[in-house]
Amino acid sequence: MLQKGTPAPDFELFCTPDQKIRLNDFEGKRLILAFYPADWSPVCSDQMALYNEMLKYFHKYNAAVVGISVDSKWCHMAFAQDRKLHFPLLADFEPKGAVAKLYGVYDEKEGECQRALFVIDENKNIRWSYLSPVGINPGADGIIDALEDLTSSENPSGSANPEVSDYPAVSTNPAGSENVTNSKKS
After folding, report:
1. Is 113 assigned a catalytic role?
2. The domain 27-183 belongs to what CATH superfamily?
């Protein structure tokens, strides 16, 4: 598993059947990578639902979140729609687990991602990582602590940036021809 201080490996993965997201799409912002074993499993479902509820808190720290598993783009689309998720799920499907392997969190025996979290700073460096037991939801406390540490090291007053800046917007229309773009949210 990659550790704090390591440059985050670049990636490009499908987030919808016709759109891909790259690490570079999050230029100038912090990124939370949430690797998880599989859509539809009870622990993964709870974990992704928690991060969906935490989005406004992540945004206060200029952070976006993406989920990554070896499920297909079609499986992710159905799962995200069913669970009403408002952040991208990336398909590390083919070659299977290639990005998880880059980050050192692919379980060769099970053929799936391990349950791992990474906080990446604006300069694309890993600032925090955590490997959770597969059957345990790691929650969001560690993520928030890492984001607070980043904020306090950059801003001695320790207050989070109240401004929410550009976040990659993703069309959830599989037939649409829209690409990943940057859009202002308020």
Report:
1. no
2. Glutaredoxin (3.40.30.10)
